[in-house]
Amino acid sequence: MSLLHLAIISPLLLAIFIPMLYKAFRNIHTGWFVLPLPILLFSYLLTYLSATTNQQTVAETLNWIPSLGINFTAKVDGLGLLFALLITGIGSLVVLYSIYYLGKEKEKLGNFYVYLLMFMGAMLGVVLSDNLIVMYGFWELTSFSSFLLIGYWYHREKSRYGAQKSMMITVFGGLAMLGGIILLYNMTGSFSITEIVSQSGDIFNHPLFVPALLCILLGAFTKSAQFPFHIWLPDAMEAPTPVSAYLHSATMVKAGIYLVARLTPVFGESPVWLWLIAGFGIVTLFWGSFSAVKQTDLKAILAFSTVSQLGMIMSMLGIGAAALHYETLDDNIFTVATTAAIFHLINHATFKGSLFMVVGIVDHETGTRDIRKLGGLMNFMPITFTLSIIGAFSMAGLPPFNGFLSKEMFFTAMVRVLELDIFSLDTFGILFPVLAWIASIFTFIYSMILVFKTFTGKYQPEKLDKKPHEAPFGMLISPIILASLVLIIFFFPNLLSQSIIAPAMASILPSLLETGKEFIVHIYFWHGFTIELFMTFGVIVLGVLLYLTKDKWKKVYGLFPEKLALNKAYDGILAGMQSGSYRLTSSYMNGSIRSYLVYIFGFFILILGTSLFAKGAFKMDTSNVASIGIYELLLAIFIVIGTVSILFSKSRLASIIILGAVGYMVSLFYAIFRAPDLALTQLTIETISVALFLVCFYHLPELKKEEAGMSFKLTNAVISVGVGAIVTLIALSAHSNKLFDSISKYYVENTYTEAAGKNMVNVILVDFRGFDTLFEITVLAIASLGIYGMIKLRSTRRKEG
Amino acid sequence: MEILMAFVVGILFMTATYLMLSKSLLRIIVGTGILSHGAHLLLLTMGGLKRGAAPLLGENAEAYTDPLPQALILTAIVISFGVTAFFLVLAYRAYQELGTDNLEKMRGTEGNE
Amino acid sequence: MRTTNNVILQTSIKILLFFIVLYSVYIFTAGHYYPGGGFIGGLMTAGAIVLLLIAYDIKTVAKILPVNYRILTAVGLIFAIGTSAGALLFNVPFLTHAFGHVVIPVLGDISLHTATLFDLGVYFVVVGVTMTIIQTIGEDE
Fold this sequence. Notes:
The complex is a heterotrimer.
Chain A: H1 3-24, H2 31-34, H3 36-46, H4 49-53, E1 58-65, E2 70-76, H5 78-101, H6 109-128, H7 132-150, H8 157-188, H9 193-198, H10 200-203, H11 209-223, H12 232-235, H13 241-250, H14 255-267, H15 271-293, H16 298-320, H17 335-366, H18 382-396, H19 402-416, H20 425-428, H21 431-455, H22 473-491, H23 494-508, H24 531-548, H25 550-553, H26 566-588, H27 593-614, H28 630-648, H29 652-672, H30 676-698, H31 714-736, H32 745-755, H33 760-768, H34 770-792
Antiparallel strand pairs in A: 1-2
Helix pairs in contact in A: 1-3, 1-6, 3-5, 5-6, 5-13, 5-17, 5-22, 5-23, 6-7, 7-8, 8-11, 11-14, 13-17, 15-16, 15-21, 16-17, 16-21, 17-18, 17-19, 17-22, 17-23, 18-21, 18-22, 19-22, 19-24, 21-24, 27-31, 28-29, 29-30, 32-33, 33-34
Chain B: H1 2-20, H2 25-46, H3 67-98, H4 103-107
Chain C: H1 7-30, H2 38-55, H3 58-64, H4 69-89, E1 99-104, E2 108-113, H5 114-139
Antiparallel strand pairs in C: 1-2
Helix pairs in contact in C: 1-2, 2-5, 4-5
């Protein structure tokens, strides 16, 4: 285990101690114990920066299940490091913010930080694992911790609903992804991403290629909330705001983007890949921004905005894959899409993180997030207002904020789609810039709503629960840091370009690089009067116009009938599946033991019978049999008569006594077959059993009438004859096929020397196989306690029924 | 002898199955009892019958019968005693509470309490 | 149990019981060399007590043998697990047994074996379990 592995699991390790720390130090906010870890991890990961900048990757392997090719290989490359830095960097800020957001008196902080650390470790595992199965494990752990965090305030019905919804959708996608991973394994024989990438050329024409691609994309789309799976993200906003800022905007929802980026070298050349990712991305971008405008809850606006921004990054990654069809880097105009995707990923984390924190502050200080109640807060919270201006303007794509840079690059990428002449993009491709432009207008509108409806306009104190005032300083630190980054990145974008963006691009598009070369990324403020700039002007002009006239055209949203909403479909499917599976289950689980036994015996006959004949195992060999004595023959006849007569006995007493008699005859058999221990045991057990049976029925109320004998049932008869026949056949075959010598020779030889005993059976029981006996007496003790409980610990008798 | 035993075991299994498929709880318990007898004899038969003296070194014999199935069966006998007792008391309590040992009648009371 | 006038049974049981218990103890101790052992010995002892229950009623038997059989079961389990785990103290795997010979005056050469302690645990558990079952049902109204 290397330091890198330790770094990945360190949040999980710390999580173990959090409940104890929480109990031991009630006066100190538990967050202070958590905070050092992400900071430490962030600094540790920064040390890898020099390696990845020089196109190196660091890989450490910890063997887990080597026989199946499943090993915990931690690998740091440009892409993984970018995400790991985001996770730990934003993580530190979020933990700091949460210390002021969550009061230590009211909240169950122990739980909160355990979940948060669990998420952090899982997310680091996702982005730093080279093995797909290990990555899948961490992937599901992120879904799981997200579920717990959304349901953190579990007494609220909506939290529980949101938690369940996110779990259902992301785990559904996760399972599809597991299917995709296994298909990839079938094609390449490896779970290692590095290995799979090196074989990507060979699997391109494999029949399983497209199914694998679809399954993996399903996982990525559900996780990254792409249309139509985005419906879980708005409901996930029930989580505490630090969680929304962290999981549901900066990190977890980007896991899908990470997956797409990571597997672009494998699938990127396929037209299906390009069309699906770019197509779903652009539709999500449009739908998210369009829906955001009609929201009235600040967090809902941010949720839909996140959906739309994720769609934007996704579409850029899709278009960026087109670059793979060009041999050389020099005239390749499509790598800009990938650059823009990574750049926007970073920018989005900064401005959206700060906006979430701003909204959290507003919620915390006024008690509401409803923009119909808010307004005029500018005078009460000047710092928060400034921060929200920076975040929102960056989101809208205005200078001088980093959103402007990436928005311009996004337009560049979309406009260049028109120059693509593959996969019929030259005809339908026009949709991309058009949709991108329209979506940007809506983005502009909701960004304005976010700021101006909250901070300007009429102050409505009567609608607020609390008197608003500026947030405590501690709560402002994290958003201030993020907002400063928004500005710094605008003025010095090239700080990032060679150190972080270029190495990440090298991981996404490795085939374009010749050995020793690297991507040259340069980000410009000023492109000249290009079409992108005019598009931005158009966005601003139209955006302002539409914002001012919003009340007039708002009716458009009424055109979409409520019944067709995706949420209804989700609820309907869930309810339908529940009732459907209930009906299916109750159709065969009908509560009658007899039916269950019929299934069991039916399968018993079917499976054993089939395998007996399919394998040709049935054989009857009469050469090596023991002789039959007259006593044995008589005994066998008596046993048969006895057993069969139980079937015809009319009284319970008679059947118990016959059962006892059969037991005694069996013990005689043991005696004849040279098993004295068995004979003794069987004799005493039978005596006690009969006594037990009689004692039990001695107490029972008088029977109203003697029961009739068993009525004959054909199904039962057929099944029981089948069972009997199969067992006989198996007994015959087992006797006739002796494949190897008995293993008992060891016991015969070693009983005296090893265990100083002469009774082999007893020595086996207490010595050689003592474990069996130990467990057996434990089972007996449990059975007796169960009986004791059933009789002695009954609840008060209900009225006679 | 093994051939004969195979048929005896088959008949034990057949009867046990038929009893277990009936509606009466007591018959089901008797059925499980018979089933365990059948299974024990099956184990013993599979190990080979009368291949030597009883597995006691004091016998000083040339060959001994296989001790391993015997040890397994001994365990099984005691366990099946425990299980039968448990079933029996379960049936007894059910009978006391519900006044019937007919499984089909018991089903109806589910959920009404 | 119902009290009935079982003079013959009650008289004979007084003598028989002694022999049955003695024989069960013999069977138990001989287990390592001859047929027998904890299971059979335990069952036989339990059978003897059941016989006593049939002859007298449950209250009388409880007076004669004031044993809490559930505790007996627990004691037996502790014996079995204790002897098995004791091996760990000697740095050998769980359940390793040891044996040796001791010469005691009067009785002569006696072979001692920790497996017997394990078997004693089995014996207690079997008696405890059987009697718990029978007694619980018997006491039930």
